[in-house]
Design brief:
There is one protein chain. The protein has 545 residues and is α/β, with parallel strands linked by helices. The C terminus is likely disordered. Bound molecules: flavin-adenine dinucleotide. The site of flavin-adenine dinucleotide has 40 residues, from helix 1, strand 15 and helix 15.
C-alpha cells in the first residue's frame, strides 16, 4: 500500500467535500480523490471559451436552495466565501403578448400579477402557498432523516420505522391525503385542481419536471415540484432559490476550503479504478494508475453504477442489490446552454435592456403545460424537442464576478433530448437544438439572438463522459417514486451504508439527493462516524430483513 489514511472519500463533488469535512472535523485523517482537474463535480464554475476567459459560467447546476443551515453553519461556509443572492420572481413572457411574474415572498404583488390572467387564480394563490407550506412542514424534516429499513423485522430496523411513525403521529387524515396526492399525482392534474389559467399553470409546472424524464402529465411529477419547493436560501422564504456569488463552483470551493481547514487532503487528477474488498470489508482503493491507498472507512459519492458495479464489482455484492443498481433509472434528456450576452434581453412585454426585476429571477420558456408536455413527447418519440422548454437565469443580475461590466451570463437549463443521447455526442443536432431554444427567446425578446457573444452547449453525452453523470441524469438517478426515500439507492441500503462493511454511500443517489444540498455527504459521514464509535466492523446482510 502506498499510503494509509483513516478515511478515503471517492469523488470531490460537493457531497464528497461535505463528507470529508465532517470526517476530518471528527479527527479522521481524510483524503478526497477526485478524477477531474478540479473539485465541485456538477457544482462547477468554468470558463468554456478559451478566447474569452473573462466570462465564467456556472456550467451545470445554477441555483441554490436545499442546503440546510446545519451544514452551512457547521462548516462555517460564510467565512469561506459562501454568499447567496436570493432570486427575483419567476418570469414568463408569452409569445402571444403579455407576461407573468410569480413572487416567492410577496403575496400582494403575486395577486396583481396573477389577476391579470385570472382573478380566480389570484385568489387561489395564498391557499396554494399555504398548502405547500403545510406539506413542506412534513417533507422538510424528512429530508434530514435517514430512511429506516422498512419491512425488516430486525429490532434496530423496527425501532427506526417506529420512530418515524411516532414522529408523524400528529398528522391527520387530511395531511396524509395531501401527501398521498403529492406522491402519486402528475403536476398537471394537481395544478388543474387549483388553477384555471394556462399561464399560471405553465409557470408552476416547471418545478415538476426539472431534471426529470417525465412530462408534466406523468404521475410522480407533483412530488418533483415539492422537492424543488421546500428549501430556502437562508432568508426564510419557502421555495426561494438564490445565486451563489462566483457561481455554483464557489459553493464547492467554500466547502473545499472548509475541508482543508479541518485538515482534509484533496487530490485532483486522481481517478479511482476499484474499491479493494477483503472478506466483505472495504480495505482501500486502487487508483486507475495502479497506486493503492488504504483506509478503514471509505465514502463513495459517485453515480451508483460506477460506485458499485464498476468499483466494487458484482461478485462482491449481494445479487438483489446488484440487480437493483443495474436497473436504477438514470435518464433525463437535459441540455444545459450557457450564453455570454452583450446586453440583457429586451422583452416586448416589458421593454428595456436596463436591469429590471424580471431579469433577476427565472426567465422561463415554459408558456403552458401543454408546451412543456410536447417537448417531452418529442423526446420520448426519439427526437429532440422541436420547441424545448427552459428554466433560464441571469446570475449576473446580481453577481458581478462572472463577466466584464456591461455584459451578462445567461444559463438555460433545457429539456428534452432523447434519453439515449448519453451514448453519442450528437454535436450538430445539439447545435440545432440550441438554435431552436434561442429562437424561442428571440420571439419574446427580439434582441436576444443578436446579443449572444458566445455559447456553450452541454448535452447528456458530455455530462456522462466529463462529469460522471451516467445517462446524463442530473441527480445520479431519477427522482421517480420507486427511487425515493427507503428505495434510494436500493431497498435495505438507504441508510448511507452499503453491503460492504466500511464502505458508505453519500452521493445524490441517496435520500435527500439530488441537488446541491450536501445532505447525502453529511449523512454518509455521520453513519461512518457512528460505526467507528461503536467499533462496528461488519454488518449483517440487510435485505433479508
Ligand atoms: C445540468 C445540471 C443542472 C443542475 N441544476 C441544479 C441546480 O440548479 N440546483 C441544484 O441544487 N442542483 C442542480 N443540479 C443537481 C446537482 O448539481 C447534483 O445533484 C449535485 O451537484 C451532485 O453532487 P454529488 O457530490 O452527489 O455528485 P457529483 O457532483 O457528480 O460529484 C461526483 C464527483 O466524482 C468525480 N468522479 C467520478 N468518477 C470518479 C472516479 N472514478 N474517481 C474519482 N472521482 C470520480 C466526478 O468528477 C465528480 O467531481 C444540476 C445538475 C446538472 C447536471
Amino acid at each position: 500500500m502506498a499510503a494509509t489514511y483513516d478515511a478515503i472519500v471517492i469523488g470531490g463533488g460537493h457531497n464528497g467535500l461535505v463528507a470529508a469535512s465532517y470526517l476530518a472535523r471528527a479527527g479522521a485523517r481524510t483524503v478526497v480523490l477526485e478524477s477531474r482537474h478540479k473539485t465541485g463535480g456538477a457544482a462547477t464554475t468554468e470558463s468554456p471559451w478559451p478566447d474569452a476567459p473573462e466570462f465564467k459560467v456556472t456550467r451545470l447546476s445554477y441555483v441554490m436552495s436545499l442546503m440546510p443551515p446545519t451544514i452551512i453553519n457547521d462548516l462555517k461556509l460564510a467565512s469561506h466565501g459562501y454568499r447567496v443572492y436570493p432570486m427575483g420572481p419567476y418570469y414568463q413572457a408569452f409569445p402571444e403578448g403579455g407576461s407573468i411574474k410569480l413572487y416567492a415572498d410577496d403575496a400582494k404583488r403575486n395577486y396583481e400579477s396573477v389577476a391579470r390572467w385570472s382573478k380566480k387564480d389570484a385568489e387561489s394563490m395564498p391557499a396554494w402557498d399555504a398548502w405547500l407550506a403545510g406539506l413542506a412542514d412534513v417533507l422538510g424534516p424528512m429530508l434530514l432523516t435517514a430512511p429506516p429499513n422498512i419491512g425488516s423485522r430486525k429490532p434496530r430496523d423496527l425501532l427506526g420505522t417506529l420512530r418515524l411513525a411516532w414522529r408523524h403521529r400528529g398528522l391527520n387524515v387530511r395531511t396524509i391525503a395531501d401527501v398521498t396526492r403529492l406522491m402519486t399525482m402528475s403536476i398537471a392534474d394537481l395544478l388543474d385542481d387549483w388553477f384555471e389559467s394556462s399561464q399560471v399553470k405553465g409557470a408552476l409546472a416547471v418545478n415538476g419536471v426539472i431534471g426529470t424524464w417525465a412530462g408534466p402529465y406523468e404521475p410522480g411529477t407533483a412530488y418533483v415540484m415539492a422537492h424543488h419547493s421546500i428549501g430556502d436560501v437562508g432568508d426564510g422564504h419557502l421555495g426561494n432559490w438564490g445565486f451563489p456569488e462566483g457561481g455554483m463552483g464557489a459553493v464547492a470551493d467554500a466547502i473545499a476550503a472548509a475541508a482543508r481547514s479541518f485538515g482534509v487532503e484533496i487530490r485532483p487528477n486522481s481517478r479511482v479504478g476499484r474499491v479493494l474488498v477483503e472478506n466483505g470489508r472495504a480495505i482501500g482503493v486502487a487508483m486507475e494508475n495502479g497506486d493503492e491507498i488504504s483506509a478503514e472507512t471509505i465514502v463513495t459519492t459517485l453515480h451508483p453504477r460506477t460506485a458499485f458495479l464498476e468499483h466494487v464489482g458484482e461478485t462482491n455484492l449481494p445479487a438483489d442489490f446488484a440487480k437493483d443498481i443495474s436497473t436504477w433509472k438514470t435518464r433525463s434528456g437535459v441540455v444545459k446552454i450557457n450564453l455570454a450576452l452583450s446586453e440583457l434581453p429586451n422583452f416586448t412585454a416589458d421593454p428595456g435592456t436596463e436591469l429590471a426585476e424580471h431579469h433577476t429571477g427565472s426567465v422561463e420558456m415554459a408558456p403552458s403545460m401543454e408546451f412543456t408536455e410536447r417537448a417531452f413527447l418529442d423526446a420520448r418519440e426519439g427526437k429532440p424537442a422541436a420547441r424545448p422548454f427552459s428554466d433560464g437565469v441571469i446570475p449576473t443580475a446580481f453577481d458581478k464576478t462572472l463577466c466584464p461590466e456591461g455584459t451578462h451570463i445567461m444559463s438555460l437549463f433545457s429539456q428534452w433530448v432523447p434519453s439515449h443521447w448519453n451514448l453519442e455526442p450528437h454535436t450538430s443536432e445539439l447545435e440545432a437544438y440550441a438554435d431552436r431554444m434561442i429562437e424561442l427567446y428571440d420571439e419574446v425578446a427580439p434582441n436576444f439572438k443578436a446579443a449572444i457573444l458566445h455559447r456553450d452547449i452541454v448535452g447528456p453525452y458530455q455530462m456522462e463522459q466529463e462529469y460522471g453523470l451516467i445517462g446524463g441524469n442530473i441527480f445520479h438517478g431519477e427522482l421517480s417514486l420507486e427511487q425515493l426515500f427507503h428505495m434510494r439507492p436500493a431497498p435495505g441500503y438507504a441508510d448511507y451504508r452499503t453491503p460492504i462493511s466500511g464502505l458508505y454511500y453519500g452521493s445524490s443517489a441517496t435520500h435527500a439527493g439530488g441537488g446541491v444540498c450536501g445532505i447525502p455527504g453529511w449523512q454518509a459521514a455521520r453513519a461512518a462516524l457512528a460505526d467507528r464509535k461503536v467499533g462496528r466492523t461488519a454488518r449483517a446482510p440487510r435485505a433479508a430483513g
